Amino acid sequence: MPEDHEQPESSGAGEAAGGSGAAGSGAPAPVPGRRSFLRGALGAGVSAGVAGAALGAAGGYAYRAPQPTPKTQVAADQAATGRLPAVPFHGRYQAGILPLPQPATSVVSFDATAEGRGELTDLLQALTARARLLTAGGLPAPTGIGAPPSDSGTLGPSIVPDGLTVTVGVGSTLFDDRYGLAGHKPAKLTGMRTFPDDALDPAQVGGDLVVQLSAGHTDTVLHALRDITRHTRGGLQINWRMDGYTSPARPSGTVPRNHFGFMDGISNPDHTDAATMNRLVWVDSSTSGEPSWAAGGSYFVVRLIRMLTEFWDRVSIAEQEQMIGRRRPTGYPLDANSIQATPNFALDPNGGAIPLTAHLRLANPRTPQSADSRILRRAYNYDRGIDSVGNLDMGLLFTCFQQDVKRQFEATQTRLIGEPMVDYITPFGGGYFFALPGVADERDHYGRALLA
Amino acid sequence: MGALAAVALAGCASGSGSTASPAGAISISTGGCGGDWHLDTPGWHTFQLHNSASDAAEVELINPATGAVYDDIENLGAGTTAPLRLDVGSGSYAFRCLIEDTDAITGPTEKVPGHTSGATAILPVTDDDLLASAREYHKYVTTGLVTLARQVNTLNSAIQGAIQGGNLSAARSAWLPAHLTYERLGAAYDSFGDFDGEIDGRPDGLVGGVNSPDWTGFYRLEYGLWHGQSAASLKKLSAQLVHDVGALQKSWPSTQIDLLNMGLRTHEILENALQFQVSGHDDYGSGTTLATTEANVTGTKVLLTELRPVLAPRYTDLPAVYTWLNRLQKLIDATHTSRGWTAVSKLPTTTRQDIDAAISQSLVELAPIADITEPRRQ
Questions:
Q1: Banded pLDDT at A68 (limits 50, 70, 90)
Q2: Which of A354, A380, A382, B169 is deepest in the core (most CB within 10 A)?
Q3: Gap from B218 CA to chain A (nearest CA, Å)
Q4: Closest CA to A290 of A405, A417, A441
Q5: How far is B255 from chain A (nearest CA, A)?
Q6: pTM
Q7: Per-residue burial over B70-109, b = 16 or more CB atoms within 10 Å of its CB, e = otherwise
């Protein structure tokens, strides 16, 4: 009965401390042996020294994965609650990059407060351990009488995976002088460029690390966020955060609508086609100029874009459709009779059907020269209260993945400079990140090759 | 789950007012604790504990050789069932039942075979274990109150002395040391009862907020001293503070420290510091909330010192607590320059993040102490 037995303990986490700390002296306490500076990779530090001698173990100090929930139970839970199954965590690529947007997401920018390279490594190990555990689900480890409960309980007694994916990226600031990583920066990683139509708030731009959590439900996302921050308190501080959601496709189909009422993300490269993804999304060992550790990663752009919905609602449908280049009810390009039709700009050189300044046309001119600049676009809606004049603070949590930010996102965004729609949107935050290569197996962790 | 053969033989029919326990549950009653149960193999297991007695109970799963507790269920109402899930290692186990108004009963010892380690147990802490710690803490507060009384007198004199045309700079200088002395006493807040609201209350919750006539104490004086209020308008408040501190000092010798609070306060002091000081919420003008935080760290460390005999053998991560508290102090000290303390709102973002990180991780490390030091019935 495998589910009746304890889980394997992670390596190197079993030393006992013996309680010989410098209590009361105020002096730095001697830390026996190598100990993670965070608790994420460890369990409660309750001593076995006095009480548990009969069991002959320093257990309890070692990290224990939660008990896997029996498969039949998982199936029953999913059926009862509408939760999604677990997404496998280990792999060459991070699992959250390619899939279509999930119903709920949160993009959280952190600054690293870890002191030095050793603590940064601990931090990434702790983050890996939590992500591995949260995406797999299971029963949280009890803590006995020695600590508060190990889990917040917001998903019930058992952590349900609910399709949770955790996508971790690093910002260019992580490669400053703090961690000795300056020589290892991904070749094309920079701070986020300010475009002419932006109104960036420095407090909502950039970050040393980004974590995107996506799942079937908001409670799953927030449970994961709470767990991750709990286990990384000393090493990470939240810089800014944006929660997003995906609307159901209306009236049918697969493409959700944004706050402007238009279908969003109709034209995207086929994420199931490996050759296309290799060309447009993944950095691999042959990608020119990239450090070898970066193979399996991808450039991750986040843009926080306010949409002035009240203003937009006061605009005629004809003008709205001209700005976008598609019919609002159906999503059809203005020159075609199906949603997936490729607009034929060559037959419409003067923009009689699709204006030359339409978003559709500028974003993707569909020329041989522009094919290389396509991005894997993953946008979510956001909604967060009101602004200072009583308008609704709604917008787009835009994310995209690519092999080269300049060649792809920036080229696309440059074509969009001054498009008519800019009067109705305000990009105010976000950042450029490099999504790390996937965590290969139980022994691997985020950034292992980077820190090696 | 096939490894389990748990049967409740004892207890079901004994004890007054007993109720039938559900099939497979382990029964708790005045006539027996746990009955016979058996596990063929170690591993994760969930025990269903059923209280068949007519009063509420607490049930512990213990190592009968040492009395150490693996886990417990508290507040198990009569007739109710609750799960206790444990990674059961090879070794000896017994249930210990603490039914209200009844002597503790320890059930039969059961041996789980093999050589597999499981969850560890902790030696429970009793009132007796904590008495010495609380006594030491009481003494610490007694000494602190002597200093505090002297310092609030100085503050009061400075304010009274400024009424005839003098300025309040001496009063502003006298305010901070007095306030910090009070903040170093952290652990005793609950023991201070209503005195704390009078001596160190904030205007939140008062109708009129900072203009409320009911707002008294250190923060009220800080607000006045740093918002251009006159000595004449503050003299009643500073005299009141002297009076309230005197009253506290007088009542202190007969005040008992709740033993449960000894452990709870080890994280609650800094939880409050994070919420009200590091956030800047309790900055009423002097910009010294980080000084207050440091005073709170000192108070926390005093408590840890007093609890050390109880904690050292039970909490292997105690050194990590000090690592983080020391880092926090170092970061706070670095904000204290020759020009004095810096308001948190004026600090660079990275400095605030470092301080937020250090106090937050300190709290994570401190959190288990309240559980470990919770006094348990013998």
A1: low
A2: A380
A3: 28
A4: A405
A5: 25
A6: 0.89
A7: bbbbeebebeebbebbbbbbbbebbbbbbbeeeeebebbe
